[in-house]
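Troubleshooting entry. Yesterday's outputs looked truncated, so today I'm pasting the complete records for two proteins to confirm everything comes through intact. If either block looks cut off, that's the bug. Protein one:
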Amino acid sequence: MKTFRLFARHVMLFGFALVACARLVAEEGDIAFTGARVIDGNGGAPIEKGVLVVRGEKIVAVGAASVTKLPAGAKIVDVTGTTIMPGLISMHSHIGQMKGAAIAPEEHFTRENVGSQLAQFERYGVTAIMALGVNQDVLYAWREEQRAGKFPGADIFTADRGIGVPSSGPPIEKANPVYRPKTADEAKNAVRETAARKPDVLKIWVDDFFGSVPKMAPEIYRTVIDEAHRHKLRVAAHLFYLADAKALVADGLDLIAHGVRDQVVDAEFIQTLREKGTPYVPTLALDESQFIYAEHPAWMDDPFFIRAVDPAVLATWRSPEYAAKIRRDPKTPRNKAAAAVGQQNAKLLFDGGAFLAMGTDSGAMPTRVIGFAEHRELQLLVQAGLEPMDAIVIATRNSARAIGDERNRGTLEAGKRADFLILSANPLDDIRNTTTLEAVWHGGQLVPVQ
């Protein structure tokens, strides 16, 4: 057995060790990662001095070194001192909607731009995303290419175009892909067309965006939910208000794609979500992103953040003019209040036994930074009062279940995809350590992180 030593935070990581690992990927046989702390995503105690064995795109063994037998002839990669955890999964992100500071789905939904964004998710350790609406139909072809190994980047799951109503959400100019039915019959036809393309979920928008646009009427969303269920299709809803969340869940909604942020959730709602098991995606990073850059938090100077942002956009956010604009914006106090309520509700729902999954709305706007936002979401969940392990489970195992593919991903178990991160520091000590990415492995392939 030949052993390759992975030197955490050492120049050799990007030299001999990763070159050696890349060569191993192309060879036949098993690769065994030894010596790391292994967080498997199931929420139990981490495995100290663990072993993770990969064959092709799958995991074939994971466990403590003392009880896990290495396959004969396995190539050994010594990762002592690091932490291995599953790849992150975002239940709510977007691709092809923006480029730089510009938001224009019709213009930017190109193979080049979508591929670039999927690659950024991937090198930030986000190995799968749900593209939750405003998608061009060509995404299905790219999804099939990806499954055939011909389109790199984070794995694509899609909510198709999505269904809103006229002059309402999503409030994006020229967002023509989105269905905007005026009647229940039009809504039914939109669902049938969507279902024929075989999306992973269907997205609806039920929000008035602080009273600025009309909200989808109950008659429309009930029709959408009922028709979608007839086609065995789950429905995810963009929402904001507790009253809407209650009504939608009562009418059969399958996924809450944004947290409730208008008021603190009550015991009735917590019980309903617990009993129904409806996944709830808080998207805490969304509201924070509306104002946080004007406050210039310390992480804005971290290379991990800087590498994820278009330089021109970052320069704007650092300017005094931008800070003054955000301070003057009448929506800023409402966004700050929504961010605080969202965190409070995430903690109440988690403590109450509701099922939380991870999403950020990354990629919908430049402020929701692709890849970085997912790590920030983990930090905000912990800031809300959850333990680091809880946040990790939400972003891995739970999100795999919510995305509809828990049999293949989300935890480090034999038979599942070899999607995992190697970190130089322990995220259970400090959740910010998920940003100490030394390597990303996606489907058994090494992904450069810089």
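Protein two, checking that the full record survives here as well:
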Amino acid sequence: MSEAAARRVYLPPGPSRRIIPRWVGPVLAVGVGLAVVAAFAGAYWDLYQVQREVASLSRERDELRQGNAVLREEIRLLRTPAYIERLAREQLGMVKPGEIAIMLVRPTPAPADPSPGAGGGAGPRKPWWLRLLGR
């Protein structure tokens, strides 16, 4: 036997044995990989939420700009005497001297008909057996 082979066979088991099992490396690599994926997933979720909020705020900004445009147009119209006169006539019911104001008043609606089982018909209520027989 060669000397190297003799050393391999007869060395004591202590110093030449593996201290760390072989499965620890792959498990550690998978764990680190999962930690990295979790870190990036959390960052991606935060980015997604911020992008949704940006889109929502952009829509709100556009709606407010449209509302501002409508209000600017209203301000521009309020500086004209014809528009002021129209508002005074329509909303306040004002008239010029010598004019006659005619106000159309809608009639108040009649109260709702009571339900058939609640009574309150044209006359006194018939007993149930007469109503059942149709008399």
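Both blocks look complete. Sanity check on protein two: The CA atoms of residues 114 and 120 lie 7 Å apart.
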